[in-house]
Design a protein that fits this description.
The protein is of the alpha+beta class and 189 residues long. The chain has 2 domains: 77 residues, Winged helix-like DNA-binding domain superfamily/Winged helix DNA-binding domain (Arc Repressor Mutant, subunit A, Orthogonal Bundle), CATH 1.10.10; 99 residues, Winged helix-like DNA-binding domain superfamily/Winged helix DNA-binding domain (Arc Repressor Mutant, subunit A, Orthogonal Bundle), CATH 1.10.10.10. It has 9 helices and 5 strands, in the order αβααββααααββαα. It has a 3-stranded antiparallel beta sheet, sandwiched between helices. It has a two-stranded antiparallel sheet with strand order 4-5. A hairpin with a 7-residue loop joins strand 4 and strand 5. The longest helix is centred in the C-terminal third of the chain and has 20 residues.
């Protein structure tokens, strides 16, 4: 398939799908290898990066999604309903961090780290599509396992979980001390 036709096909697929599409799937459709497909997608991203374009491509793990440029958001809300904004409280952020770094993880494991019930936080994060059920643990009761979603990656501006900042030993120790002092304060009350 000639390059211009391949770009047109990829653009049509990404526009129509709305969600991200795996690069392997795109390569199969245009009958090219994965590296050639990535190169074509990179060219498309450069074309979209021009100031006079309203769309762009976002790479998430090994998938690509067409999206509107962020700087044009103010114009979109004039014609569309403003999307519902969600607020991530400290509790939700703590729970989300645990899931992001330890996934797949069960509610019980989250509660062990936080020291308190996490039902509300997990339900809110599911509602916000920042986490999802990724399966069940092979253990008594077959507890649900949770992991992050592509929406999590989009929301936090990372392309993959490998891009998350690494926690150093000092930070981990500080977090443990904070958690222990919170638990102690609750016990004293």
């Amino acid at each position: 398939m000639e390059r211009a036709k391949a770009k047109a096909v990829l653009e049509a697929i990404l526009f129509t799908m709305g969600d991200s599409v795996g690069i392997d799937s795109l390569a199969a459709v245009i009958e090219e290898d994965k590296e050639t497909t990535k190169n074509i997608l990179d060219e498309m991203a450069e074309d979209y990066a021009a100031d006079d374009r309203g769309i762009g491509l976002v790479t998430l793990d090994d998938a690509v999604q067409m999206c509107t440029k962020g700087e044009l958001y103010e114009y979109l809300i004039k014609i569309a309903k403003a999307p519902r904004k969600f607020v991530l409280t400290d509790t939700l952020l703590e729970t989300l961090s645990i899931i992001a770094y330890k996934q797949p993880v069960t509610r019980l494991e989250i509660e062990r780290v936080r020291g308190v019930s996490c039902d509300h936080a997990v339900n809110k994060l599911l509602e916000y599509d920042l986490i999802t059920e990724v399966g069940r643990m092979d253990a008594p009761g077959r507890p649900l396992l949770f992991g992050t979603t592509e929406q999590f990656l989009r929301s936090f501006g990372v392309k993959s979980l490998e891009d998350l900042p690494e926690l150093n030993a000092v930070q981990i120790e500080e977090f443990k001390q904070q958690a222990e002092s919170e638990v102690q304060m609750r016990l004293d009350v």
